[in-house]
Amino acid sequence: MIVTLSGELGTGKTTLVRGILRGLGWVGPVKSPSYALVEHYLFSSLYFYHFDFYRFDDPDEWNTTGFAEYFRPDAVAVIEWPERVAARLPEVDVALRLELAEPGRALELRAATPAGEACLAQFAALIG
Ligand SMILES: Nc1ncnc2c1ncn2[C@@H]1O[C@H](COP(=O)(O)OP(=O)(O)O)[C@@H](O)[C@H]1O
Ligand SMILES: [Mg+2]
Questions:
Q1: CB distance 6 to ligand 1 below 6 Å
Q2: Which one of 5, 66, 94, 118 is separated from 110 by 20 to 30 angstroms, measured CA to CA?
Q3: Measured in angstroms, how far is the CA atom of residue 52 from the centroid of ligand 2?
């Protein structure tokens, strides 16, 4: 599952990922991957990767770091600043966009594949 997370700096992208991880039961620290570009979280049934490509500016880095290998069927990738690597990403399942709102934030959710549609349908059922 590939989930992109767009929005200006400070709109709450990392905070949302932290909330998703807490919802999955992760109790450890959740750092912004703004320097490492990726943080790994291992659950019993899946690998969860949190990317932040804000500082991605070297196209060779994509190959030397082996980013493509992160996008596997047993992995969920949530990606901040997907615009910086757009042409390299495989098919995106769900595209999220955060914007400042009063009060709080507005979140737009778009499914782009059947898997993404199933994911958002479950989410809609969950929040009623
Ligand atoms: N839904 C929200 N409502 C109010 N403040 C928020 C919300 N989400 C995040 N914030 C605050 O906004 C700031 C930036 O959040 P962060 O997740 O680091 O943004 P981003 O990753 O988009 O740059 C933090 O101080 C955070 O506590
Ligand atoms: Mg962030």
A1: no
A2: 66
A3: 7
- Phi and psi at residue 10, to the nearest 5°: 85, 5
The whole-model pTM stands at 0.95
- Tens of pLDDT along 65-75? 889 999 998 99
Q: Which fold has domain 2-127?
A: Rossmann fold (3.40.50)
User: Does ligand 1 come within 6 angstroms of the Cβ of 10?
Assistant: yes
Q: What is d(CA 1, CA 102) in angstroms, rounded to the nearest whole number? A: 31
28-40 burial code (b ≥16 CB/10 A, e <16): eebebbeeebebe
Q: State the burial class of residue 9 (Cβ atoms within 10 Å of its Cβ: 0-12, 13-18, 19+).
A: exposed
